[in-house]
Amino acid sequence: MAFETINVEVQDHVALIKLNRPDALNALNTLLLQELGSALEEADANDKVRCIVLTGSEKAFAAGADIKEMSEMSFVDVFTSNLFADINNRIAAIRKPIIAAVSGYALGGGCEVAMMCDFIIAADTAKFGQPEINLGVIAGMGGSQRLTRFVGKSKSMDMNLTGRFMGAEEAERSGLVSRVVPAKKLIEEAMGAAQKIAEKSLLTAAAAKEAVNRSYELTLSEGMLFERRVFHSMFATEDQKEGMAAFLEKREAQFRDK
Ligand code: CO8
Predict the structure, then answer these.
(1) Is CATH 3.90.226.10 what the domain over 6-198 is classified as, yes or no?
(2) What is the percentage of the chain residues whose pLDDT exceeds 70?
(3) ipTM > 0.95?
(4) How many angstroms separate the alpha carbon of residue 67 from the centre of ligand 1?
């Protein structure tokens, strides 16, 4: 499908989805969020794709939900449309791993969309923030919930109450991002990580993703049980036989997603 507000390329089994509203620092308007959901679903359904990288521009991953669009809305509008619920549910339903590659601003909904991905690789120029308080609203898609789980209550309160931005180094130190790289190397690093994932069994990668994501929803003992049961179920796959045989035979595993 052709999109207006995003670009999609598939290279070496990785779908690179780029947010592309340069005049508005990739602000997330209705069209962009719809197109992003569709692009992710297409990548998830495409047999040639084994991992997804979501990125923006050098200046902005996304500077938040589109303030111009939201400024006209009433309580009844946002309540009735259940504003922003759709993209959260659509991203949560994607089974292939998604890496957010963040350069520049990831603010408000931009930070929240990055946190909806499976992990975040940041350029040294990245700036994360939940500045909604400056607009007379609060975070609406995880900025008070996911961010608190990533960085802890104190830092999350600081970000949500003062609206200050967090640089890449602080974001890595706090557990919000997995690695920080020079801005020029961001896409190369994210694509490299995605290609590493693409070499694994897709079945196993989807199971690992599911297990880690459950840790946000379950108690420790329920999560441990979920993990153990999924681990047990991997023994029904050909890829488990192949992975272990390849180790013992000192060769590369040839996974077949079966
Ligand atoms: N919405 C709409 N337009 C935007 C946005 C935005 N969030 N951010 C920037 N723009 C536009 C500007 O209006 C400007 O357009 P124009 O040239 O037509 O005036 C253009 O992008 C460039 O922006 P600036 O001139 O302001 O660029 P600066 O480099 O001076 O400043 C900043 C960059 C600091 C990022 C600044 O643009 C800024 O503060 N932006 C707003 C950040 C913000 O408040 N974000 C939170 C929005 S609320 C939100 O996200 C609610 C989340 C709910 C859940 C969403 C889930 C998907």
Answers:
(1) yes
(2) 100
(3) yes
(4) 7
